[in-house]
Amino acid sequence: xxxxxxxxxxxxxxxxxxxxxxxxxxxxxxxxxxVAHARLRRIDTARAAAxxxxxxxxxAADLARDGRVPRFGPLVADxxxxxxxxxxxxxxxIALVVARTxxxxxxxxxxxxxxxEVLPPVLDVADALRLPAxxxxxxxxxxQRAWAGTNVMGVWDFGWGDLEAAQARTxxxxxxxxxxxxxHHLAIETHGVIAVPEPDRLTVLSSAQHPFVLRRVxxxxxxxxxxxxxxxxxxxxxxxxxxxYPKIEPAGALAALALRQPVKVVIDAEEAFLTAQREGSxxxxxxxxxxxGRITFQDMAVDFLVGAWSDISPRVVLKSGLHALAPYRAPxxxxxxxxxxxxxxxxxxxxxxxxxxxxxxxxxxxDRAAARLGIDPLExxxxxxxxxxxxxxxxxxxxxxxxxxLLRMAADGLGWDAPRRAGVGRGVAIGVKSxxxxxxxxxxxxxxxxxxxxxxxxxxxxxxxxxALLAGLVEQRxxxxxxxxxxxxxxxxxxxxxxxxxxxxxxxxMGNAVQAACDDLxxxxxxxxxxxxxxxxxxxxxxxxADPTHPLGGPTPFxxxxxxxxxxxxxxxxxxxxxxxxxxxxDAGRVLDPxxxxxxDEGGLLMGxxxxxxxxxxxxxxxxxxxxxxxxxxxxxxxxxxxxxxxLFLENSDGPGPEGAKGLAEGGILAVAPAICAAVxxxxxxxxxxxxxxxxxxxxxxxxxxxxxxxxxxxxxxxxASVP
Amino acid sequence: MSGTYALGLWVNGERxxxxxxxxxTLLELLRxxxxxxxxxxxxxxxxxxxxxxxxDGRAVDACLTLALSIPERRVTTIEGLARDGExxxxxxxxxxxxxxxCGYCTPGMVLAATALLEAGGMLTREAIEKGLEGxxxxxTGYEPIVAAIEAVAAGDSRR
Lengths: 724, 159
Fold this sequence. Notes:
Order of helices and strands of chain B: EEHEEEHHHH
Strand content of chain A: 15-25%
Radius of gyration of chain B: 16 Å
Strand order of the largest sheet of chain A: 3-7-1-14-11-12-13
Distance between the termini of chain A: 50 Å
Structural class of chain A: alpha+beta
Largest sheet of chain A: 7 strands, mixed
Strand content of chain B: 15-25%
Oligomer: heterodimer
Structural class of chain B: alpha+beta
Distance between the termini of chain B: 52 Å
Number of strands of chain A: 25
Largest sheet of chain B: 5 strands, mixed
């Protein structure tokens, strides 16, 4: 089944959103703000409207309902469909030119002129704290009222134990600063939508990861019942979180309704950079250890820069803070996670969902401490790692795996204790991420008299391969009852509700729902074998535990835990890193599709390498993206693949999914950056905490400290040393 | 407004005689005029390789090629690679190696690799990596793609 899915891609037959054509389809192109922060004075659309082929030029005023352009968002509705009075990032849509052809729309868009009064841009954490609020106080949603008049989106505090008392038992305190820049998903397919209006109804085809979330957000924005909107997710050419929450769909929908004609909007690659980014972050950490290397306290403050809209960032920030300390015991802890608004391209979910930002800091602290205490970094981790059954944070699911084994397997895979060549550095890191709690997946299996089974699931397809995995579960469960299985996926008009395809949840949640649906079908068959052409239908669902008192709405259904070990050399003349080997181990519970599981882990690793050593969105002083294109941003290519990359699985059948499976699609990215940082420290004595570790950054640090690559642990440790 | 100019060329063995404005790229010709949507669009700067097609057997970026600049040439797209509905040996190797996840880079990747294989010579791993440097993939980590090409280069085109 998976091979059939791959075949239609390899033969070029799979149709994505941009491949869909239909009669009377109009094409939309955004006019985007040229400045990061400004009051809009005048938008002149006359020349564009007169351009041949242009049908309408829509501005916020044209789309206004009750005097105002609608706002939308998955948590709070704070993103305007088109900027109205103020534009809050360079690249924000200001108008949508709708034309009979793509080319006419693009030509028309170039003819729209905008007069603005420039306001000071808010581009980093310091700006956000210092400059006036980018959102008027009265416009802040109820959930954020406490921070009205500031650029704070929200603050989440977590902690336990007695920090004061813990300091008394502390022999060594390690301090560190860590940062992760804005970074782009760079799915090879950009975002696209086709909105088809009918009287009192709307059908939306979209490159949407979460069709049911998009349906809810569109219906809320329109003030329509949900079933008046049908969303069909087309197979995506990658997403990695970028297409998770509504982006361009609200504009496409309102344009189609205004024009009473189907409208297609497919953005280009440079626009994708202006549509979705990973949150930037700065972390300050203090960690105490006793003389034996046992953690006495953790004290961490995380600032996330989220762009101008909330999108899903409140969840990213909260979750990142709550689970920041998951892998290691700490008798006392304090974590403050804060989200800050900025006039920068919007941020959203990104593979790892905030976890990599704090894992970088947590693991960086361990390596600094190991050097300081003279304890092997692996040994120090093993002394502090939580055992199975311990809670990972207050109220959380007890640890559901052998995290110490993960670390050992990764380190052993590298030959941790084996002698190494001069100049070679080794590092190992653990990464733990929780899964979204309290969500439901539903599945339906229909068995026809011809023996063909149709599986209906809300799970979307973006390279995850879940559809094929689920079809395999149906074949297995129905045994000889089904001659063949096909999948109908991700269409709110056809498939039972599913919360979302994210958080590595679908194998567990939808896998269980599918098995339940099969069991239901088998029970119906056994009770009353149908006559003639009658179809037998089985339904099933799975809901993870919810708890309204839990900060996230419930405990994690499972942990996505990985360990990554890296061996590299550093060229002291150029600062260039040469990653020679990577060993990655995933606690999969049980691997249901070994080939794709390995592919997802390796793909995640290479993406993680890119984020660790080269990828960052660079903004100039005016907030303009300086490298917002495929050419200038540069993701890893075939030339960046480490010569030896090993992906292993720990399988103890201890997950909540079919056969004890856990989810695994995000894990590749979680621990590779801190493992690389650790290996660089091992090779050079430099403890760098600011990503990406570009050759220039490493070279400058080497030059500034006079350090040079040597084997083994450095004699002196510069605490919290980081390069500006 | 520009006028149109006559263009005759071959796409996947089929003759097309068209009248096109000068600004139309090969990418637009394939996708929007001929409806061959297997060729994909990303950067439109010649960097990502998603729109790679074969021009007389050589890999080119369709986004950077003006249609009128290739009269009487032979273009092969992903739709034209299979013979009598049978995937090419390289396509079979891609399927066997799970060398596509989302699949968006795949047509360009397969065509770039086809050109590499057809150029002949020793295809070492390094030569494959160098030859595919201009084709971005964000899903797979490239390993299965390189493995699939190595398998075909080694004369092993098992399913």
